[in-house]
UniProtKB/TrEMBL annotation:
Membrane topology according to the record: Multi-pass membrane protein
Annotated compartments: Membrane
Official protein name in the record: DoxX family protein
Top-rank taxon: Bacteria
Family annotation (PANTHER family): DOXX FAMILY PROTEIN, INTEGRAL MEMBRANE PROTEIN-RELATED
Pfam families (UniProt xref): DoxX
InterPro entries: DoxX
Keyword Transmembrane helix: yes
GO cellular component: membrane
Transmembrane segments: 66-84, 91-110, 122-143
Alphabetical UniProt keywords: Membrane, Transmembrane, Transmembrane helix
Length: 149
């Protein structure tokens, strides 16, 4: 019985964390600016030379505001999908890709590596990507409804 619910705490934690991260960005007007303290543009310029993939940072710098909105709405969608267990594997894939991109850019220079949180988030998404949301989820409810028909 316990193994059936083993991923639920991880799902709740990641879901709440990503919803919060998305809402935090969407309610911070400074975040979406091209320049200035706390802006996505300044952050990207600050990590460009120390990132694993500077070309990825350059891509974000072509339109920092658009990139900021994409990250914020992506985090919100991933978080909600994870919390409700709706398209849970797709949400986990999105969370893993967001975490991977942040690890390769923003937290790549953190040494030792285990002090950077983006790698830990990436690893946390992998069990949900593999298992989905088998309990207490909309995916499960929809699958049961399909079986009844």
């Amino acid at each position: 019985m316990a193994s059936r619910y083993a991923l639920l705490p991880l799902r709740i934690f990641l879901g709440i964390t990503f919803v919060y991260a998305g809402l935090d960005k969407l309610t911070d007007s400074a975040f979406f600016a091209d320049t200035g303290s706390g802006s996505i543009g300044e952050m990207m310029r600050g990590v460009r030379d120390s990132s694993a993939i500077p070309a990825l940072v350059d891509l974000a710098l072509n339109n920092p505001t658009g990139f900021g909105y994409a990250i914020a709405f992506g985090e919100l969608a991933v978080g909600l999908g994870t919390l409700f267990g709706l398209f849970a594997r797709l949400a986990a894939l999105g969370g893993a890709l967001i975490s991977l991109s942040l690890w390769l850019t923003v937290s790549w220079q953190v040494h030792p590596y285990y002090l950077g949180n983006d790698l830990a988030y990436l690893m946390s998404w992998l069990p949900l990507l593999l298992a989905g949301a088998p309990v207490l989820s909309l995916d499960r409810l929809l699958a049961e409804r399909r079986r009844i028909r």
